[in-house]
């Protein structure tokens, strides 16, 4: 299995899809990286030569912020918003949607799947009599 940027990418997928398993690389960036390294996007990851894997690894690590560095940068950006007291920072601190979504409904995942209305919750397990 090829390892790029500390991530083991799946062998049985096309390389265009396989490198999107790296945090910070999506579909569009994957195509740009493959075009820059002159690798066919339809090639399977297991069919890559060691030279192609090395070229991918070098190009991605030199030209793009990925994995740990990108996660750290995102955390620093959120911390900065919290420190300067912006509205967005306070929404991040309260673990609520930041980009203007409604919160009366549709934020169950952010709020921890809270069910407060009658009938919307799960039925209790049947107790033995």
TrEMBL record:
It comes from the Bacteria. It holds the Pfam family Ribosomal_S13. This is Small ribosomal subunit protein uS13. GO terms for cellular component: cytosol; small ribosomal subunit. Signal peptide: none annotated. Gene3D superfamilies: 1.10.8.50, 30s ribosomal protein s13, domain 2. GO terms for biological process: translation. Residues 92-129 are annotated as: Disordered. Keywords: Ribonucleoprotein, Ribosomal protein, RNA-binding, rRNA-binding, tRNA-binding. The lineage of its organism: Bacteria, Candidatus Staskawicziibacteriota. GO terms for molecular function: rRNA binding; structural constituent of ribosome; tRNA binding. InterPro entries: Rbsml_uS13_C, Ribosomal_uS13, Ribosomal_uS13-like_H2TH, Ribosomal_uS13_bac-type. The gene is rpsM. Part of the 30S ribosomal subunit. Forms a loose heterodimer with protein S19. Forms two bridges to the 50S subunit in the 70S ribosome. Belongs to the universal ribosomal protein uS13 family. Located at the top of the head of the 30S subunit, it contacts several helices of the 16S rRNA. In the 70S ribosome it contacts the 23S rRNA (bridge B1a) and protein L5 of the 50S subunit (bridge B1b), connecting the 2 subunits; these bridges are implicated in subunit movement. Contacts the tRNAs in the A and P-sites.
């Amino acid at each position: 299995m090829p390892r790029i940027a500390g991530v083991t990418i799946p062998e049985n997928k096309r390389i265009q899809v396989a490198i999107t398993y790296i945090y910070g690389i999506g579909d569009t960036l994957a195509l740009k990286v493959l075009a820059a390294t002159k690798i066919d996007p339809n090639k399977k990851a297991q069919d890559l030569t060691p030279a192609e894997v090395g070229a991918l690894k070098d190009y991605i690590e030199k030209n793009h912020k990925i994995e740990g560095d990108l996660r750290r940068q995102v955390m620093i950006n959120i911390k900065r918003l919290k420190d300067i007291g912006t509205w967005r920072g306070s929404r991040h601190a309260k673990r609520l949607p930041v980009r203007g979504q409604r919160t009366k409904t549709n934020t169950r995942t952010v709020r921890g799947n809270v069910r407060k209305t009658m009938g919307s919750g799960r039925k209790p397990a049947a107790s033995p009599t």
